[in-house]
Amino acid sequence: MRKTFAVITALAGLIGTMAAAQAAEVKILTAGAMKAVVLAIVPEFEKQTGHKAVVDNDTAGGLLKRIDGGETFDLAIITPGAIKELATKGKVAGGTNVARVGVGVVVKEGAAVPDISSVEAFKTALRAAKSVAYIDPASGGSSGIYLTGLFDKLGIAADIKPKAKLKQGGYVADLIANGEAELGLHQISEILPVKGVKLVGPLPAEIQNYTTYAAAVGAQAQQKDGAEAMLKLLAGPSGEAVLKARGMERPPS
Question: Are residues 193 and 217 in the same domain?
């Protein structure tokens, strides 16, 4: 009886060890706007694969520098340009465009909603705001880089500069929610998750800018199968439903 129990215990331990060996941590590097999407897919990914997803977030520019510096990862979700650059350096294998998102305007919940229905109305709203928050372009955030150029193009850069509230990374809407800024500009998918704020709407079509995101498996990926499984979910029906719920869409083919 004791011998039988010992055998069963040994088998149970062996099975547990095998299961632990099969399960692994899959490191996913993602640019800001895709963070909420990836986190929403993680439960399904972990259920299907048995692996644990470790998600690390940064600006597109920040991720590019980190990967260039030798950081290892399994899957990277950045801009197509960054993926292409990394591919030429042998840092990633291939690349698939998975999503795109436009820039939106955000105010505090309960605050007056400005008119942004036209380019002129948008300019008036920015001039009238006591403070305007957006991602610091120096941090490498794609929306901040675009907006800096847009302000110059619209002739309002001098109006915005003295009242700009620059965010180094994360959610610009946090500055709106805590009262540090009156009006914010950020990618829509990074506005919707924040409580205490209201999405006014997207930029007027004539000046809208879409950031496209691409995903690629790391050339030195330790968990290649896990990375490919996450990429499959992102590019599939589950991923599309999550994108729509977060103000994103599939990029045109």
Answer: no
Q: What residues contact 113, with CB distance under 8 A and at least 6 apart?
A: 107, 198, 200
| Domains contained in the chain, number | 2
Task: Give this prediction's pTM.
Answer: 0.73
CATH number, domain at 41? 3.40.190.10
pLDDT of 5 reads 47
Indicate whether 126 and 189 sit together in one domain: yes
pLDDT at residue 12 greater than cutoff 50: no
For the chain, strand residue ranges (E) read 25-31, 52-58, 75-78, 92-101, 103-108, 132-135, 164-167, 183-187, 197-202, 211-218
More confident of the two residues 68 and 16: 68
Asked if residue 57 has pLDDT above 50, the reply is yes
Looking at the fold, whether 108 and 201 belong to one and the same domain comes out as yes
Domain that holds residue 83: 2-99+212-245
Are 109 and 197 in contact by the 8 Å Cβ rule? The answer is yes
Average pLDDT, the chain: 90
**Distant-in-sequence, close-in-space partners of 174: CB < 8 Å, separation ≥ 6:** 167, 194
Tens of pLDDT along 85-111? 999 999 999 899 999 999 999 999 999
30 pairs with which residues across the strands?
57, 77
Which residues are 92's β-sheet partners? 218
Decide if 45 is inside a domain: yes
Same domain (yes/no): 124, 178: yes
